[in-house]
User: Fold DNA-packaging protein from Paenibacillus terrae.
Amino acid sequence: MSELMDLMKQLLGIEPIDTSKDEILIHYLNKARSNIIGYCNVVTLPVEYDDVMVDYAVYLFKNQDSVGLTNKQEGERSATYETGIPASILLALPLPKIKVGTD
Assistant:
């Protein structure tokens, strides 16, 4: 998790020695992993998708104030938010597995 945390801090412009946001960053890394595992319908996420998970965790961190919003307007400015995992992240993930049967 340390390498993932270091990469996430680097992408967010946070100094590696700054530990003030570590708990929230770990929360978003875990949330990203959980969401991706749920989307892909797998039990564990292969290591080759760690960078994608970090990208998604950064996205979640940067957009934490817009959770649940689909669009926002302030005066003449407006923004539309993607719901769920962004398309750019989905393209980097394996296709979801389909489970057949009851095991």
Summary: DSSP finds four helices and two strands in the chain.
